[in-house]
Structure formats: C-alpha cells, structure tokens
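New here. Your pick:
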Amino acid sequence: MLLLSFFISCSNNSNNFIQKETRNFGENVEIEHMGDMHIEDFKIIVNSICLNHNQFKTNNIWEEKIYTPILDTELKYQYRTILNNASTMEPDFDGKYKIVLYGSGTDSTGYFIFDLNTGIVYESNSYSYFGMDYNVNSSLLIINPPEDVIKYWEYEYNIIPGWVQVEYLTIMNGELKVLLIINPINN
C-alpha cells in the first residue's frame, strides 16, 4: 500500500502549530503547503499517480445463479433487504460483484461489495462523499474519484480540505485491498 501524506498537524495545550512538508513529484515539480491543499497541487498529484480501469481488466465471470447474501455481521444484517435485492441483479463491478450502496449519514455513502457467485458480502471501512467509480470489466474501485473531488471544490474554494480522501481499491485473494490513498492531510 502506498499512502501519501502531505501534512502534519501538531498541537499541545498552549500552542497550535503546523509543520510543513515538501515532497518532490518528478521533473521540477515541488509541492509545499500548510493546512488544506491547494487544488492545483492536488491536480499535479492526481495526474502523476492515478490508476485507471484499463490497468485492472478482469477475468471474473458471473455464473448467473442466485446466491443468498451471507449476513455474518450486524451491519450486513441491518441492510439485509438491500443485500437480498442485490442478489437478483446483474454484476456491475469486477465481472461478478454488485456494489450495494447505503446512506450512512452526514452526506456520506457506505457500501458493500456482494460476490454474486458465492454470496460473500465484503464490508467497507470507508465512505464515499463524492461518488464512486467502478465498472463490470475492471477490478479497480475508486472511492471519491479525484475528478469529482476537483469538480466539487474547484470553483467555490480552490482548496482540497484535509478530510477528503481518494481511495483506490481492489479485491485480491478474497480480500478487499487498498492500493493507494490520496489524502491532503493525515490527521
């Protein structure tokens, strides 16, 4: 896993202070900032390191059978209706999976990844605030796609707040794996 962190925030009872970090991203491109990341710096990072769906073509095939979702946690059981409904749908991710979205409050969306061939339901540890990018022919799942993050913040604020996190995930050996996280600030 590659984790990019561009900010360190330190505080104690008497002082609040910020420690700057400078990273070199190739040909004479240097990013230096304090606090939230300027949108142009975010664009440079995204354009330098982003993964894409063509790099993660899948060979998975849906068996076209209906499997009951395995509800082995309290959260999965809580969302049993939408998971059961998903078992009757066609895959939309990585050849054999169905992404199942649910509202998780404060304008965020949680998600499950339902293996339509086995009934296994993967529970996410992250939330989407700016959408998700996935397709049936790719094993790459992007939470908070960078282009959507940029579109949201570009005209009004021109910064990317530190709480925004772009995640690139895939399923490898039966586990949801983080490939890359882009986070302007690591709190």
